[in-house]
Amino acid sequence: RKAEFAVKVGENSSDSHRCSASVKTWGSCSSLGQADIYSRTQAERVRKPRCCRGPQGLLPRYSAREAEGQEQLFKLTDNIQDEFFIAVENIEKYCVLISSKAVYFLKSGDYPDREAIFLEVKYDDLYHCLVSKDHGKVYVQLTKKAVNTSSGVAMPGPSQQKPMVNVKSEVLAVKLCQEINYAKSLYYEQQLMLRLSENQEQLELDS
């Protein structure tokens, strides 16, 4: 009888192990199934990532137009964080994208990234931006620098260094010039700021 009891106990224990193993297997399967359902039913993004930094370095109010402009800038610059978005103006046949380092004039339509650029002027090369009129049409004129080798002073460049882009109204041209000149002034202010070296940044982090 003792032997029979031992055999029955052994059978019961093996059955319990089988049950626990099946429960664990079912639990892992159910968790995998839940993860798969979660991945398939994960909510899509409602809006594009907001601009976390305005021209003055503060957090601006959310704007769908500026969020699209920021996304477009990241596509042009391969997500370089040093160049941040400032403003965007959508015009009939093109778009003006103003960043902290340059101004981009982009053709409207589906173009792969940088192929949409028909004019790019970096602030290092820009002397000033102004409104120009010719035969009843209004233009935004971007005068590039020409360095005088004798004095080393930056001066307005020759006529071929003054690209002009046609704008539909004088009001819009004035607005674009103000935004571009403002971004240029911000750029030069940042160039004059003292920057921390890598060692100083590491010391601040350690402290």
UniProtKB/TrEMBL annotation:
Occurrences of domain Intermembrane lipid transfer protein VPS13-like C-terminal (ranges): 46-152
One Pfam family of this chain: VPS13_C
Leader sequence segment: none
Superkingdom of source: Eukaryota
Protein's recorded name: Vacuolar protein sorting 13 homolog D
Organism: Gallus gallus
